[in-house]
Amino acid sequence: MTPTSNAWHRNHASPLDYARAGRLGLGTPQANPTVEAEIRRLLPFEVDYVTLRLTSPSHDPATRLKAYMTQLPQHAKQFAGMKIDAFLFACTATSYLIDPATESRAINDAEAVLGAPVITAPAALIAQLQAVGAHRIALVSPYPAFIMTAAVQWWGAHGFDVVQQGGIDIHSNDTVQIYGLQSADAWASICQLDIGNAEAVVLSGTGMPSLPLIERASAHFSVPVISSNLALACEGLKRFGLTPVLYDRH
Questions:
Q1: Cα–Cα distance between 159 and 63 in angstroms, integer?
Q2: Range of the domain at 105
Q3: Which site among 22, 126, 186, 190 is 20 to 30 Å from 84 CA-CA?
Q4: Backbone angles phi, psi at 25, to 5 degrees
Q5: Which residues, 6+ apart, have CB-to-CB distance to 186 below 8 Å?
Q6: CATH number at residue 74
Q7: What is the pLDDT of residues 141-200, one digit of tens each?
Q8: pTM, 2 dp
């Protein structure tokens, strides 16, 4: 029996089964096992996400990280017209290394493909720091030295004062090694950090598990502690008037 037009109308007027509040796109570096795990734990049940892997064949970490952004318009075609409300670019170091004009062009081109705004991890971090009125920050990451140097310069260029910095040693210049870290590895270094007069602690990077650290570190330092993945979730959920669920849920 052929469905009538009334039946078709009823089906298409029905409430959504999934993504009732909205749908986020998510771009994660090719070998990163952490972004999806943390975003899943932060999003309310009524918000869904769909993922694409940012890929590059280069063995050089700087080249690879830049390619994640320059190739984003091409990567975005994987969604093939799927409707999303915002796209979360979950690679923080890319913005530290890439020329701002090149990044801006790639974002504009990707937004044209996606039909949705692109939110980068550093942009999300800035928004969260502005929300708590923090200008002096302690920057903590597992980056190799060349990325940490670029990160400090990037934050300074965006009006923030990096008063302290700390690292978690990955014993390599290849950022892929970050993905083997766990939150306990980070805590061993973070708990010894003197943050000076910092008004917030930024856990920069999406590959190292951060959610189990946030509440503990906030209590330890008595200032807000914000991670890249948490900031991305917060900014994405703003589109729906929602906030993340329990930050330390794992």
A1: 27
A2: 12-120+232-238
A3: 126
A4: -90, 150
A5: 140, 142, 168, 203, 208, 209, 210, 213
A6: 3.40.50.12500
A7: 888 889 999 999 999 999 999 999 986 654 445 444 555 566 677 787 788 889 999 999
A8: 0.88
